[in-house]
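User: I'm preparing a small set of examples for a lab meeting where we compare how different chains pack in three dimensions. I only have the primary sequence for this one, and I'd like the structure in token form so I can line it up with the others. Please keep the answer compact; I'll paste it straight into my notes.
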Amino acid sequence: MKASLSRFLDIRGLRYHLRTWGDEDAPLLVMLHGWMDVSASFQFVVDALAGDWHVAAPDWRGFGRSERTRSDSYWFPDYLADLDRLLDALSPEAPVRLLGHSMGGNVAMLYAGVRPTRVRALLNLEGFGLREGAPTEAPARYARWLDELRAGASLRDYASLDEVAARLMKNNPRLTPQRAQFLAPYWSEPDGAGRLRIAGDPAHRIVNPVLYRWTEAAACWRQIAAPVLWVEGAATDALRWAGARAEVDARRALLRDCTAASIADAGHMLHHDQPHAVAATIEAFLQARGHAHVDERAP
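Assistant: Understood. Below is the structure token output for the 299-residue chain.
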């Protein structure tokens, strides 16, 4: 298993945790985790990478070891702003190779359209976007948000790391016991009362009052200049979040330079299910696009 290092950065007034692997002089690959996940989630893919890479993965605000906000809500545009400042710290002059899973993939896609000159290659693992919200849904959504703010949010606690690992395997039946045991101490933290809690702010579970506007996201996607690797798990159940297969295919078709790949025997958590296949797909794409690790030692 490849060793990782932790560092902390001041990102927009929050103490942000960054996990890194590999030599800092190696080509940079930035990885963005999904909702209710942590940076250590990429350990298995990093272990499977054949090349010499400097991998940097943040814990998003309010997840893992990054600081929580002082508010009772999280706003999606903040992830874009956090990423913008993070890339200033990691690669202030050169565009980066950017990988994102699920929510991280959605952030990466939007960012690559908003800041097209900052991304040289985009690797999207199941970042499909969400279903378009209808304006008529707004009153009920705002009311739900107000109600959830009033009630507060919570996450269940656990008696042991074994219980945490069991929960992870319940969430993803393809996750092996060994990988679940590895993830458990990163996915949880002591609660100060002898039990473990999820390493994430419960406020993340409060519904977003702002409806998802696909037409706005699509306008950003159309501005992406980098080549895109679009990776799906062959057994994913995440298509429903965007609508259906046809909708996801139509969204992918908006991209001017896109290579699609499917990972066999993998669901939405494909980086856990088949990390070797994911790593091989990533490196084959990057090498085909001139990002070979063997002849490049700078970002």
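A couple of notes for your slides: The longest strand covers residues 4-11. The chain is about 35% helix and 20% strand.

User: Perfect, thanks.
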